[in-house]
Amino acid sequence: MMRHIIHDWEDGEAITILRNCRDAMNPDGKVLVVETVIPAGNEPCFGKWLDLMMLLIGGRERTEEEYKRLFAASGLRLNRIVPTCAGVSIIEGVRA
Description:
Distance between the termini: 18 Å
Shape: globular
Structural class: alpha/beta
CATH superfamily: Vaccinia Virus protein VP39
Oligomer: single chain
Radius of gyration: 13 Å
Strand order of the largest sheet: 1-2-6-5
CATH topology: Rossmann fold
């Protein structure tokens, strides 16, 4: 399980982190990523503000589709996203 790790990195580094997790996990294991998931559309949300802040230091917040691409490039399949009342979601990945 990782919390607020992937958003600190650009795609290439994030893929490396996720690939290392995939390589270390059991065949039936799961990787849990706790991050803000940017919703579709133009409605205001805290994650969009956070994404602007991340531009200053490197990294980014991502949409569901962007997480699907990261996971796929890492040899994982995004299994589900579980929203929480804390403004973050639990993104579950399994081996592809």
